[in-house]
Amino acid sequence: MDIYLSIEAFVRAAEAGNFSNAAKQIGVAKSVITTRVQQLEEHLGVSLFHRSSRAVKLSEVGISYYSDCHSLIDQMQALSQRSRDTSTAVSGVLRIAALNGFALQHLPGVIETFRKSHPSVDFDVFANDQVVDPVQEGYDIVLQIFPPASESLIERKLFLMRGVFVATPEYLSNHPPVLSPDDLCQHDFACYRYYPWRRWSLNNDSQHNEVTLAPALRSNSVHLVQEFARRGMGIAYLPTMVACDDLLDGRLVRVLPDFETDTPYFSAVYPTSHRGTAKVKLFLDLLSSTFSMEPEWDRRLGLAPEQEEQ
């Protein structure tokens, strides 16, 4: 027995004077109202109505019970309506966790655009390069490069997250040349700690190479890894989103440019319970429309397929 549905059937029958009209109000068959009221009476161990062939009348116990229940039903309906209003209203706080590089370079513009259309939405942004569970940490959306770790999460893929091996020109001129993937083993190496940092797959048109690397530095901060490369401390593996400007101005150069690594997606991950929330849906739609699967920084570096460069 659903106690709320049974109490609702009782209250509507008491107000309507018969089960038929109560059924019409709720939108169910008369037999459903009859069953729900009978289940409630059995649950309470009392008769709530005096019944006749055409009408029902509250018993003495029913009168007392009704005075308590009708306000409860009204409160429950008001609460349900407020919940519906909240889910459709584009207001409140949108809590987002995002990788530092994306949060610093690209998220401000998206937030600015969103708030022009929806000024009643405020943002609480946690910028960090660690992996975050949106359910456990209480975030509406997490922007990350890893697929959801739970069936209670939904993934919306935004763009390809390419990575490249980089170093300063000075470092490369003063250290053994890197002509093949195996040559990486002769150099100090840095990478993001959540990559599969020991075993690396590097591929080109004719070769598939598996290389085991022992990082001199691994960190949950891609910007620390970037600084490792900038200071000429060795070779680093960086997302093109982070390395783009350094590569274009010559501060860093690509190592093994003819080889590619496995390319994950940068995705928006959010709890299934948030899929109907208006502000979450609208922000996800804006993210999808802002970024193409082949992002602009890859096009600037000439890494995106030619058909995307239109």
Automatic annotation (TrEMBL):
Residues 1-59 form the HTH lysR-type domain. Belongs to the LysR transcriptional regulatory family. Keywords: DNA-binding, Transcription, Transcription regulation. Gene3D superfamilies: 3.40.190.290, Winged helix-like DNA-binding domain superfamily/Winged helix DNA-binding domain. This is PnpR. Pfam families: HTH_1, LysR_substrate. GO terms for molecular function: DNA binding; DNA-binding transcription factor activity. It comes from Pseudomonas sp. (strain WBC-3). The keyword DNA-binding applies. InterPro entries: LysR-type_TF_proteobact-type, LysR_HTH_N, LysR_subst-bd, WH-like_DNA-bd_sf, WH_DNA-bd_sf. It comes from the Bacteria. The keyword Transferase does not apply.
